[in-house]
Amino acid sequence: MKPRGDWSAWACLVAGYGVSVLAAVSAQAAIQQDPGPGAAVFQRVCAGCHGEVGRTPVVRLPRPFEYDNELVEATVRDGRGEMPAFSAGQISDAEIDAVAAFLRSGAPR
């Protein structure tokens, strides 16, 4: 009796899944090796409330795709909810951009 189903389709599916997993692991390793300047700024300015990188945060952050520079800057400068506003003396525009890039990378998850 001939087996049912197309084994080549299953093989492609499994291979594609394997490649996706390897790519995700490689990307995460790259982030952990060089998180960029935003990681240091996050530790200095944000970690007190949002938690240290790799730990469960005190105040949850939005999903990484929600971190466009304008939204992050508006949130930092104007505050939001329980989050206070931060002046340019506390964090510069360049530092905000670096933190936004760091957050988009998914590194603080």
TrEMBL record:
InterPro entries: Cyt_c-like_dom (IPR009056), Cyt_c-like_dom_sf (IPR036909). Residues 1-23 form the signal peptide. It comes from the Bacteria. It comes from Phenylobacterium hankyongense. This is Cytochrome c domain-containing protein. Residues 33-107 form the Cytochrome c domain. GO terms for molecular function: electron transfer activity; heme binding; metal ion binding. Keywords: Heme, Iron, Metal-binding, Signal.
